[in-house]
Amino acid sequence: MTRQDDGGLDEPYFRNSYGAIRAGNFVTTISSRTTAPGMSSLRSSLSPDRLGSVIAVLIGVALFASPFVIYRANRIVAGVGRMLTDALPTPGAVGMMVVALAVALCAALVRAPLIRLAAASIGLCAIFPAVGYSAGFVTPPGNTFARVSPALGFWLLALAFALLAADALTRMRLGPWARLAALAVAAGATALLLVSGAWDNLSLLKEYASRADTFWREAREHLWLAFGSMIAACLLGLPLGILGHRVPRLRNAILQVLNIVQTIPSIALFGILIAPLGYLAAHVSLAAALGIRGIGAAPAFIALFLYSLLPVVANTVTGLKQVPAAVTDAARGMGLSARQRLWQVELPLALPVILAGIRIVLVQNLGLATVAALIGGGGFGTFVFQGIGQTAIDLVLLGAIPTVALSFAAAIILDALIDLTRRGSP
Q: Which of 37-51, 102-116, 148-162, 408-422 has the lowest mean pLDDT?
């Protein structure tokens, strides 16, 4: 018989259990010592990623279920989709599929931001020249009427690679200067692609080639409408915001009026301004001399100006309200006058919030300026509505792509500027 202690435990059983526990701890310790440094980091970097899985699905749909380009006999007839294997020579198609699948695998399994960014960059550098080469490959020799456009497969691949790059940059938490540098690199790569002639056979570039002078004229008009209305709104909105901060009764009235203006749809506001501006042009010679008419750039500029006031005024009031009272009291104690406190203390501290309002205005105006083409205001919307009327999707893209690119660049630049002002504010 085996001896038991007061607790009723069998001694050999206790010794065997304790030995097993010690052996288990020893094995666990050894395994943790051998796998902790390298294997844990490897497992963390190779764990599945949710967004990466979505990106991998997009890449799979683009490669195997969507046409890469669309071929049309001329610019207005219906097109025929060509899959990737038919849009490129066999070596090029195989290489493109290998690159895309490698990027999909990296997106789904690898979490290291630098590796994800490198994979996305390789994918983007492969797909954009490939679609340009595909246009020349698909078009019969000597045919000047055929049109080749990027199809759903190309856009899905571009979207997937761009999402992966944006996700990697977000995880890297780049500072403002690094974000500006990344934007400059992207802009330089795009300019190099266009200058190299790799896209000359695409329908989009053929539409541009036949409208180059008109394109740059409308580009200047678009920028003037967006930036000019923003500057005018800042010149009036900043004093109104300061006045609203100083006089609470006026603040409520100003913000309520601007809120009402903001609720009016853009097309309706353009239409509302036609009648009074037309009357003004007919009865005031100076207004007519300045180019103010019922249709054209004048009502578009005024409408964008009115839409821009609310974000500028509201953010100015909010930024000034967020200045700590202790800071203004200290400035008052130092003998600063009300004007000196405003310019040397309050406005510098409120500047990041004010710039956030200006960012909203600029991105908003770059988009709304497209609608101004409906009343003869010009801008990139001219190509958008011409393309819709002619059922020419490439003409629509000729106006839409620059608008999106300008809005994206403006958002990144102003976000970086906001971060810089926050770091430099006292």
A: 37-51
What are the pLDDT digits (tens) for 161-207? 999 999 999 999 989 999 999 999 999 999 999 999 889 889 999 88
Phi, psi angle pair for 424, to nearest 5°? -90, -5
Helix axes 212-246, 393-424, angle to 10 degrees: 40
Same domain, 145 and 221: no
What is the pairing mode between strands 147-150 and 69-72? Answer: antiparallel
Do 126 and 132 contact (CB within 8 A), yes or no?
Answer: no
H-helix segments, 247-346: 248-263, 266-283, 285-289, 297-321, 325-333, 338-341
pLDDT, position 319 = 92
CB 406 within 8 A of CB 176: no
Q: How far apart are CA 200 and CA 198, in angstroms?
A: 6
**Number of neighbours of residue 264 by Cβ within 10 angstroms:** 15
CATH number at residue 415: 1.10.3720.10
pLDDT at site 426: 52
Residue 389 exposed, middle or buried by CB count within 10 Å (0-12, 13-18, 19+): exposed
In percent, the amount of the chain with pLDDT more than 70 equals 85
CA distance 226 to 403: 11
The whole-model pTM stands at: 0.81
Domain end marker among 153, 181, 200: 200
Decide: 120 and 159 in contact? Cβ < 8 Å: no
Domain total for the chain? Answer: 3
Using the 8-state DSSP alphabet, how is residue 375 labeled? G
Residue 80 and residue 25 share a domain = no
Tokens of 161: 């690679």
Percent of the chain's residues with pLDDT above 90: 52
The CA distance from 418 to 426, in Å, is 14
- 51 is written with which tokens? 């967004």
Total residue length of the chain: 426
Q: 177, 413 in Cβ contact below 8 A? A: no
Q: Edge-to-edge strand order for the sheet containing 80-82?
A: 80-82, 69-72, 147-150
List, in order, residues 6 or more apart from 83 with CB less than 8 Å away: 67, 68, 153
Three-state secondary-structure class, residue 3 = coil
Q: Which helix (H) or strand (E) holds 149?
A: strand 147-150
